[in-house]
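Lab channel / #folding
Pinned by the channel admin:
"Please post every new chain as: sequence first, then the structure tokens as a reply. Keep commentary short and put observations after the output so the thread stays searchable."

First post following the new format, from NK:
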Amino acid sequence: MQGMHRRTLLRGSAALLSTSLWPTRSLRAQEGSTVRLGIGEWPPYFGQGLRQHGVFAHLVTEAFRREGLQVEYQLMPWKRALSLVESGALHGSPGWAYSEERARLFHYSAPVIISRDVLFYARERPLNVRGLADLEGRQIGATTGYHYGPQIEQLEQQGRLRLDRAPSDELSLRKLLLGRLDGVLMNREVGLELLRSRFSAEERAGIEHSERALSEKPSHMLMSRALPEVPALLQAFNRGLAKLQREGLATRWLDEANRGAYAGVAR
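Reply from TO:
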């Protein structure tokens, strides 16, 4: 999701705000302010069935809470969330990598997490991956609309890296199990959560991942340029986030997410 939807954004309608509202727990509000955020499914970072709506959402909620602000999440497709933020129908949407196109349309928060893409591969067809050069000439799975960083994009444009793009990460992993791919590029935490939640124990045993990250990029919250209150909200969020980071909570919660602690149901 991080870098999805680089095409021209469509303007949204405020009427969509009534759809799929996820109220957070009651928080102390500052002058009655509520921050309205649009998110989609991207476990373990975001998800309707996850504890605290996912670890990324938990960090965002707590950062605002530290500054006396309440948060309301609304579940929708990621592209729609950006459209509603751009129009001012929502204050923001967390979980996005930086792009020059989006920087012209939205305010960016301080980095919330670092997203690391690794290579998932079949245990019976192991790959010794030390860098991107080791992927040249191989059939590598990727997800449509996902931004994997400038180096990978450049290799793809040069024809040195072939990315087989599928509509979802899950479909790419299933193609890997069928022997149709040599590997799948994917966010490490997202891949592990997907294996825990959607694959059998036998299937999970057949997939491993590289320890070395092939792409690293900060993930931010985007906020609307159309609303006059957003600069103050953004400053408050950055202050609250800095408090969480100083206290070590961000690192602790991300470690817990890697162990499946944000799963909504028993695995």
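NK: The first helix runs from residue 55 to 65.
TO: also worth noting, The radius of gyration is 19 Å.
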